[in-house]
Amino acid sequence: MDIRQHVGVSSTMDVHRARFVPYPTSAISALAFSRSSDSGYTGAFPALRLAVGRANGDIEIWNPLKGQWVQETVCLGDGKSVDGLAWTQDPDEVDSEGTVLPGQQRLFSIASSQAVTEWDLARSEPKRKSTGNFSEVWCFAAQPRWKTSKNAQDEPRSQDMVAGCGDGTLVLLSTADNDLQFKRFLARVAGKRARCMCITYQNRDVVVAGFADSMIRIYDTRNNSQVRQMSLGIGLPGAPKNAFVWTIKVLPNGDIVSGDSNGEVRIWDGRNHSLVQRLTGHDNDCLDLVTSADGHTILSGSIDGRMSIYRQTLGEGGRKSWAKHSHRRAHSGEVKAMAAFDSKNGLSVVVSGGSDAAPMLTPLREHGKENSRSLSSLPQQPKIVSARKARLIASWWEKEISIWRIARQAAIDDVPQPEKPRKLVAKLSLDVKQAIRSVSVSADGKLLAAVTASEIKVFQLRRRTDSDGLAVRKVHAPQEFTSLGARLLSFSADAKWLAVVTPDSEVHIARFAEDPEQPKQLRCLPHTIELDRRHSKRAPSSLSEYDRALVRVAFASDSSVLVAGDVSGYLDSWVLEGHEDLTATAVDITKHDSDKVSSNDGSDAESDSSDDDDDALVIFYGQHWTDNPAGHLLPKLDSAPLALTFRPTILTAQALTNGNPGVHSTRHNPHAHSHALPPGEHRLWIMTARHEMYELDVLAGRLSDWSRRNPTAALPEAFRQIKDRVMDAVWDVAGQHQRLWLHGTSWVFMLDVGGDSMDAESVALTKKRKRKARNGNGEERSAKRHQLGSGAGDRVESERSLGPQSLTRTENGHRANIDLTRSEQNADEDEDVEVDSDLPALQLARLRSNGSKGEVARRDQGTEGQRKWWCTFKYRPILGMVPLEDATIPEEDRMLEVAIVERPI
Amino acid sequence: MAGTKPSRELQSGKTTNMVHDDGAKGSSKKRKAESSEVAESSSKKARHRPASPMVIIRNTHGGTDTEEPTKKRKRQLVETETAGEVQPLPAASSLEPSEVRDDGMAMEEEMVAAEEKDIFQPRSVPEEQDGGGNFAEDVEMARAENAVEDEVVDLGATQPEAVSEAKEAEPAAIMPNGGDSSESSTKPSKLQRRQNRKLELSKLSIGERDVQREKAEVDMNKAKNREARIEKGRIVQERAQELAHEVKMFKREGLAETAIAGLRMKEVRKQKKQPAWSLSNTVAGRFIDHDPIFAKDSATGDAVLITATHREILVLSVETSLPVRTYALRRGISICSYSLDPSDPESLHVVCDNGLSFAWRWSADGSGPQNLEPSDATFSKGSSAIWSSRSLYTAGKRLDEMHVVSGGDYIIAHGPEALVLGMRQDTGKNANDYVWVEIPMSIAVTCVDARIVESNSTSKKDKRLARMSLALGKSDGKILLYDDVTSVFAGHSQASLPTPRTMHWHREAVSAVKFSRDGSYLISGGKETVLVLWQLNTGKKQFLPHLTSEIERIVVSPEGDRYAIQMGDNSIMVLSTSELKPVANFAGLQLACPVSESSLPTPKYEPEMPYSKSVAAVLHPRHANQLLLAVPATRPKTSTNAAEARPFLQTFDVWTSRHVTRQALTRNNVTDLNLGPERTPVAPPDTTHISISDGGQWLATVDEWMPPASDLEFLTTSWEELVEERRKRREVYLKIWRWDEAQGLWTLSSRVDAPHARAGKQMQGAGRVLALVADPVSPGFATMGEDGQVRTWKPKTRVRNGVAMKGEGDVELVEWVCKRTVELPLGSEDGHADSPVDTARDHLPLKACLAYSEDASLLAAALISAGHTTTLVHFLDTSSGDIKATKSGLAGGEHLEHVGFLDRYFIAVVRDAVHIWDLVTDALQQRMVLPSGATLLAINSVDNTFAVAVDSRVNVYKPAETRGVHKDDCHQNITAILAGRGAKGYTLLFDDATVRTLALTGAPARRALPDAPAAPKAPELTIESGPPQSERSADDAEIAEVLALPAADTKASGPIFDETEDDRPVVRPEQLASIFDIGQSFATLPRV
């Protein structure tokens, strides 16, 4: 399908609505939070991440960000379904200075094999596997964390893991010493049906495992003895005789909760192992369940997509009893996996996933009062790139790249024999071991680079003369470069530079040029360089390696500045010094460049590049990459950048300098090179995972003037209500206007960034906020204000609410209205005040957005009649939005043309 | 003997009480009088005893006939009782005037006292009564006879008393008619001679008195130059002849008195045996939408169920499924709510729609005096409105129902938009300090149940250890269960409401939800006809599916061993909790009541034709007490085709007020999913006509069905097209059923698809059948369709190889065939009748009239269509099928409504008149003017009368007489009037699903019970506290006033039946004096 249409903002954007990209989504098969609650931690909390395992082996790392939920990284798997995920945390360490270094959080998975895999989150790759003399692992669990006891002599111990296997074997694995090793067998249950279906720790010593022979067995790991076994009894009539114990969990008080193939949830006493209660929650198999941190709530999910919630209540005579509260069909398919994070004040949410591929957030503490929310099943980083001048769109998954050419509007409309609106012009199946992690294509469509975790491949694309297809030729690059592998890459706008981010988050740059011998062919210059990252002092983190992983990289529009941002929000930037001098040697390597600040001694890079790379200065055609002199001035962002893009600059008549005037090689300086910084402003527009908006003047190392006038608060209310995070941004700078088109998986948003986008109210609002920020921890609080919920959806509207949200109380003739919607934990007074003071302004902003539900448009601004912003939700789900260009139209008439790739399910 | 006469005992017990109280009551008790009575009686009084404001008080309702009790009477009663013999009945009422003269004052007082009681008089129904007996009538009769007996004794007459006892029916019933009449003819005539006519009038039974007094007065008022014949009924009791039906019909033979009224006031009396028409008591009726109450009869120890129709409170025995006791209210007042007094479970508090509240001791000695008292019992279990002077709380939204929990600790009320919870505060002694919480509901709450859970934990400091669980049924089918709602009463900052448990099984609104007694189950029901039992601890559900109709109410008995389920087919079923087996069933008449104005949206498309649906009902020709009628599956709540379609046949015994059978006549989907894919209700076919053959062997029904408009909308662009498309797809079936004695069911014998074609030669679709009549002589039916054809249908023995086929039980198999088709010529006067263009819409027949002559030799047929101004009546010879005659003058220029044959007369009811055409002389015999309104006609050849009902009024005529023989106003819209073959009298169906019979009886003719003025709209439920004790007496008085709503209002303002004759009672000024002379404040107009 290719629906070509004009967007509502007439004559501003031409949209190709593309639905032909058959991007596959994969079911969710496992979910795990890095920790289940805030309790039990002293000092700073370890980082909270959600690992989502999918049936194709991918593991996505999501950052809840106090309810904003952004997919940070993706670990590509090998196609085997991730059947289980577990996080551990190494014991905290105290360094010589007495500061506590939090123990590193580690992620493990099992995948229908005999191995337990540990993942290197920083590299997004498997780190190590532990296999042993046991059959395939069906389930595993991590030991509860060591709790510091009063006995000071007790050495903090690491967490063990226990794995249940298909042949009834239970295996203990040790994660001590940053390793994963077989410890011993815990038990071997004989019998044909003695498959261990689920397993969990009751406490650090006792393991509870559910089997396929409708048994629950309890083992003591200290002496390898079976403590007790409980039977579910036979299955329901019509069901197999043996019920499967699909899932088993332990409540904080030690009681055991099991979910079985009869659809029942049973609660067992934790001490005497007797059945306390059986609850009929589902009509089908109950596949997974989670419990709240206080142990008064259970949620279970079944094969028919329903999620049931159970609550413990005071029954007859003060006896506590459980009762099913309600159920809801949360997923269109089954509910395969569930995970809960339940803190007292902040996030309190259950994540569930299944065959419909989208993680579903269900509020836990505020259940019934807040909406559920579905996260996107599509990747946060668009898997669509375009060569705008060549009108190519490339999409990739697994080991394949598909390239389409989009016909020009004129060619479709006007020509007597219209072209097909789109055509698949090439399909590349790479001979690589791992799946493709990223692809970049140059704007002119001549170069295409694809990377896997261990390989970088660059191709030259040329239009065939005999057909519409593309001829693909591999471009040879240095072996040491291609074998680096990469997680990210980007061509510069002029297609001369390719920046790649290796799995170790190093940045390498390769230079492409025309082959002098075969002018039609492009080649990679034989030398590539590594750009050093700044090593700023970072706060200790439980994911210290992972925090340095680069997630976005961007070239400036004149290709002279490169910026990369990492998970924790740090930015690294480099500039290209000098002017291109095609007469100079292609690659000129100097050593001991005095200007270069040698600071890579601390580098952890065990790079295979030769030693001389470390301190050598490589000059390509008179140009060389160096650190941004103002790089240290760039602030740390509040969170990982999601949209990182330079504002295109209208190239002013550049001094036609052929080469670098005044730079001459001398004897002492045989490799003379220019230190001229690129001219003009290089304004980097950033939107972070918290949807904070910045624009940095990179070379000046400060916020741009526009950004000072237009802080995040100036964004329209309609934008701030959007929950899905931004995926990418497309600039539209033709003519007089400067517009930025942002999109997420469900929305497209236009923001006019040419002028100031806000009005007096917003400014006042911002100033107020700033003042507050100065007064105290205002930023934090205002962020918190938006996060009063439990991290799932918004408050349920009163019309749809199960329970009432307000009531009228009359006592002795006095009437009072009481709002029931406030959360149980009373927000402190200050925040209330703040909400009140902000409310009028926000309401004003809301009033201004006189839009319907689907499309919200701001009133026309002044005499220009141009909208400051515009928003639509009519495209969904959006896999990507990429710009295209019609070179036949004169530039001044050219309007922005994009292809919005949707993936209808 | 005692066992055989409980009703007698009850009766006598009551009268005995009255004797004891006599003196005190007469003076001290509050009095109520019907103003109309006052007016009438005083008008007579004015002539005779102007000084003595004698009040003749008529019984309001409840099956008793007012007789003036005397002291002697009571004494005699005791004798009667002990004697227990069958005694001939004198018709002695004419003797009473002397009594009146003798001790007028005492009598007056007594009458007042009696009157007070009679307004709310319980009817005791003996359980032993044989099922066929019409208890209502029995009791009436018994009472009437009692009175008669008294009078007889007073006179010192020596004849044995006639025992009126229904129970002693056998001997009484055997008593030959002749004996009765002979006695009645001789004795009264002697007595009467001594009497002043006017005084007689006052002694006459109410119904007659009214009629006749009116006439007499008119006569006196304006009878200077006119003679009027006044018929007077005499009270002569006569046993009805219907022994086979086990019902004692009392026939009253009255003396017809012809008085020549004039200036001379000379009375000429001519004794003529002529029965008097009387309207029986109301039977059947629809249970009000209120939880029935389980109670225990303290006398018998039997479990009973207390419920109510609009007019009656019924005490139903669970053991026997029979009513034990009933208690009727005066017409015009409807019962809104009732509840047991928590302190005295034998006392029932009743609230009426006019805001009136009183208590009734329903238990064994229910015949005792009824305390009329303001309900100051503020807290009563179950749902009940609390009436008092002080408002406790005024809700902002409408509230429909209320529950009082835990002796008044909590009050819960709910309406569609709000839920109001009240909790009594512990502060001080004032029990009426409540904290109220009003919770707006976005989805309407349809039912509520609350349960107090006592928690044992003593650790909590909180005094209020009880938690209140609350179950809410919602209109979207969800049931919300709050474990503890007491937290909402907390102060401002602490108030919270936990998220409820959600139980969602019902597709549509939950009609009823209740906790089981132990709180471990929740029982719910709704439109799905499934009783759902929610096991709260395990989350399991149990079902009792396929009930016959949707569940409207569920009540759990106090012991928890029974559930009472009130269903949409106007029945209450009692189930045992353990086996879920029915224990008792009380089924009422399932007549579809008109849909009350509801908030539900009206359907998009109105019915095809703006005609009102006529009731499809017929009386069984051999069992005149059996009413067969087409009923909907469940009480329609919306006015849609699906809701109002009548796929079922109910057989109902109108004498015993009992349901007999019910069976399906068409396809139906009561217990199936009855929603289409687009959630539009699936409509079953609607049975439009029912007729039964003479022998009761064959039943013919016509049902029709059209696809819903929403299914065909896509085909059409305009409303007209849509109507046409629907008509093309109309299905009409004529079904003929044979009575299967073995199974007690009607079994389908033949089905005729599309018995008639569509009008205007349209090929597609079946035409409507506009009329269906049964051959009065032989098995056979005649139909008339919109195509203008009359078809006669006859059975034909099925023959195979020349041998008649026999079915099961050696029954000859027959098939029904169309014997004859006669195409009626269309009226040509209009000129354009033949033009095909206009036939499409204008001439679509609206209605047809079809009637057999009594010997079935002639069939009258007329087709009424909108386009014709003149209706032709065709007379068909049934043997040849020829049109013997065609008359246009019968209904000349007027809209013909009904036709019928009676003897040699042909009766045509047109819009505002009745035409009686003598077929022999071929001349219009009479034309009697009717008031305008919807008319109904019934012809009874046994009586040689016909009855015409117009709205709420009914007129009985004899064709030979120029005036109607009887007229009555029922103050309730009549939806059908039926005459049984071979039985006298008429059966009237009213739109509140009640039935009354109008017949010649020996019992005192009862006029329509005095009706209160139209009851004010049910007041919004406000919760009010009881009045302080000091205010009590004032309240009493107030109530008394309210109760004494004068019927004069109705009299004066309501339209009088026969407006052509100005015979309205005129209250002259001097009479007014006597009205107001009664002297008590309650006699004044009520402050409504």
Automatic annotation (TrEMBL), chain A:
Region (Disordered): 593-612, 765-839
One Pfam family from the record: WD40
SMART domains cross-referenced by the UniProt entry: WD40
Gene3D superfamilies, alphabetized: YVTN repeat-like/Quinoprotein amine dehydrogenase
Superkingdom, natural source: Eukaryota
GO cellular component, one term: 90S preribosome
InterPro entries: UTP4, WD40/YVTN_repeat-like_dom_sf, WD40_repeat_dom_sf, WD40_rpt
GO MF annotation: an example: RNA binding
Annotated Acidic residues bias: 603-612, 826-837
GO-annotated biological processes: maturation of SSU-rRNA from tricistronic rRNA transcript (SSU-rRNA, 5.8S rRNA, LSU-rRNA)
Protein's name in the database: U3 small nucleolar RNA-associated protein
Organism: Friedmanniomyces endolithicus
Source species taxonomy: Eukaryota, Fungi, Dikarya, Ascomycota, Pezizomycotina
UniProtKB/TrEMBL annotation, chain B:
Biased composition range(s): Basic and acidic residues: 197-206
Region spans: Disordered: 1-206, 1008-1035
Compositional bias per record (Low complexity), positions renumbered to this chain: 1008-1019
Subcellular location: Nucleus, Nucleolus
GO biological process: positive regulation of rRNA processing; positive regulation of transcription by RNA polymerase I; rRNA processing
Domain of life: Eukaryota
An example Gene Ontology molecular-function term: RNA binding
PANTHER family with a match to the protein in the record: WD REPEAT-CONTAINING PROTEIN 75
Name this protein carries in UniProt: NET1-associated nuclear protein 1
